[in-house]
Amino acid sequence: MGTSYQKMSSPTKTELPKVPTPLKNELAQFDSSKMKHAETLEKNQLPSKDDVQQEKVHNSMLTGVEGFERSKLKSTETQEKGVLPNADVIQQEKGHQKLVQGIENFDTSNLKHAETQEKNPLPTKEAIALEKSAA
């Protein structure tokens, strides 16, 4: 596939657009010393040395993964090493489940009514007033 380039020619003086005379005069008399100073902020900063190094490391990892040869891998067998619970643990769990079922199915109709008796009653207002006046 060949690409052909055409030489672009510059426009001639007569082909250029005409600038109106008042604008030409204004541009010729422009005084740049009356302009205010402005600080230029670089919004697209170049990456730091560390950024470049990190990108190189990342690219080398990608290249390593893309170029990896699966034919060099060896076949292996997986061995399960999960530990199953022994008889004691199973028995404990069964006992726990029976206890939970007993609590969930508890029949409250067999309970007797009980009256609560205060063994350490709070002092009355009169007793508190008497103590304050004695102190």
UniProtKB/TrEMBL annotation:
Pfam families in the record: Thymosin (PF01290)
Tell me which SMART domains the record gives.
Answer: THY (SM00152)
Membership in a protein family: Belongs to the thymosin beta family.
Region annotation (Disordered) ranges: 1-26, 36-55, 60-80
- So which domain of life are we looking at? Eukaryota
* Name listed for the protein in its UniProt record: Thymosin beta
Keyword annotations: Cytoplasm, Cytoskeleton
Q: What is its main location?
A: cytoplasm
Molecular function GO terms recorded: actin monomer binding
Asked whether the UniProt record includes Cytoplasm among its keywords, one would answer: yes
Q: Which GO terms describe its biological process?
A: actin filament organization
Its cellular-component GO annotations read: cytoskeleton; cytosol
Q: Where is the composition biased (Basic and acidic residues)?
A: 67-80
**Carries keyword Amino-acid biosynthesis?**
no
Compartments annotated for it: namely: Cytoplasm, Cytoskeleton
Which residue windows does the record flag with biased composition (Polar residues)?
Answer: 1-13
